[in-house]
Write a structure and sequence with these properties.
The protein has helices at about 15-25, 35-55, 70-85, 100-110, 130-135, 155-165, 225, 235-250, 250-265, 295-305, 325, 330-335, 350-365; strands at about 1-5, 65, 90-95, 115-120, 140-145, 170, 190-195, 205-210, 270-275, 285-290, 305, 340. It has about 375 residues and is of the alpha/beta class. Helix 2 (about 35-55) runs parallel beside helix 8 and helix 3 runs parallel beside helix 4 (about 100-110).
């Protein structure tokens, strides 16, 4: 299998798997229990928290473990809205956020909040001045992703922070951590995910700057500094910490390597790259292939052992063309003719070599096949 869908999920790093295996056999107690088994599990969780905090440059008490980026984003948006409802009722986001952010904001609208969705240009880049114009005295939250999950465009986060003018600033960095440098000084809340950096699925976290108002999403216990109730997933947290530590430690060499692999895919015939040509993550390539049905291409490539996607895995059940590409100005047909290729720190030259043999052949065959009307 040639796996080129690492923006959706990455294979588990061997060191993360080893760390998790030790937990399954040794630290299976409840971290909230006062006895020896509980204390051992608690130590594993807190050691993991220290490791993640050290990698991010944070205070360990600012790191909240969750089940992944979707929960972290929901927690950030709903938590700030509930905590600051008396102060304001306006939220600013962008038109190309991950579905879990856009749907969280839509839920707030149904509760009476106002939401402004900032448009983007053809390159997927947000203009900070548009954010500044959208912010009002009633704005309590600005939520913008660090890097886009479909095209890889990296946003001017520091400038957007300045444009937020005192509103709480949340950043979804699920596609940025381990790919590009992440500066906590540029935000108040930051989302990260385990399975985007070779950690286990179902793990993630939310960095919460000390003093940031945030109501809990899950209640019923005092875990995670009373920010997220529920017995901690000890093995998952340990695996997450191992993966995040490795990803941040090796960020620069891994980024250069991923960029080199991605650059080779730029040569695929008949492609037009989507997203910003310079401000982009090193691991992701989204391209439009004129005359190719993206859905048919995914199926045909899968039959040849090549895994790619047409966009966010969380939106894969939808038959509609990518809302990200449509928001960037692509036509319905262009969006339906686009594919996302994404590599990881564990991708190999051999995989790319083989993909460069298979992909042009499969897409060439599809171009000769009459399109099925929708």
């Amino acid at each position: 299998m040639i796996y080129l869908d690492s923006a959706a999920s990455t294979r588990l790093h061997p060191e993360a798997g080893t760390a998790m295996a030790a937990c399954f056999s040794e630290a299976w107690g409840n971290p909230s229990s006062p006895h020896a088994a509980g204390r051992l599990a608690r130590k594993r969780v807190e050691d993991a928290r220290d490791a993640v905090a050290a990698g991010l440059g944070a205070d360990p008490k600012e790191v909240v473990f969750t089940s992944g980026a979707t929960e972290s984003n929901n927690q950030a948006i709903a938590g700030v809205a509930e905590a600051l409802r008396a102060r304001g009722d306006h939220v600013v986001t962008s038109a190309i956020e991950h579905p879990c952010v856009l749907e969280s904001c839509a839920r707030l609208e149904r509760r009476g909040f106002r939401v402004t969705r900032i448009p983007v240009g053809r390159d997927g880049r947000i203009d900070p001045q548009e954010v500044a114009r959208a912010v009002t005295p009633r704005t309590i939250l600005v939520s913008i992703q660090w890097a886009n999950h479909e095209v890889g465009t990296v946003q001017p986060i520091r400038e957007i922070r300045e444009a937020a003018r005192g509103a709480v600033f949340h950043v979804d960095a699920a596609q940025a951590v381990g790919k590009v440098p992440v500066d906590l000084g540029s935000c108040d809340l930051l989302t990260f995910s385990g399975h985007k950096v070779h950690g286990p699925s179902g793990t993630g976290g939310l960095w919460v700057r000390r003093g940031t108002p945030l109501a809990p999403l899950l209640v019923g216990g005092g875990q995670e500094f009373e920010r997220r109730a529920g017995t901690e997933n000890v093995a998952g947290i340990v695996g997450l910490a191992a993966a995040v530590t490795i990803a941040l430690r090796d960020l620069e060499p891994n980024a250069r390597r991923m960029e080199s692999l991605r650059a080779r895919l730029l040569g695929l015939p008949g492609s037009r790259v989507n997203g910003h040509p310079g401000h982009r993550t090193p691991h992701l390539l989204n391209a439009t292939f004129e005359g190719v049905d993206g859905e048919a291409a995914i199926v045909a490539l899968d039959a040849e052992g090549v895994c790619v996607s047409s966009g966010s895995a969380c939106a894969s059940l939808s038959r509609e063309p990518s809302p990200v590409l449509r928001a960037m100005g692509l036509s319905i047909e262009e969006a339906r003719s686009s594919l996302r290729f994404s590599v990881s720190a564990l991708s190999t030259e051999a995989e790319i070599d083989r993909a460069l043999e298979i992909v042009p052949r499969v897409l060439g065959r599809l171009r000769k096949t009459p399109a099925v009307s929708r």
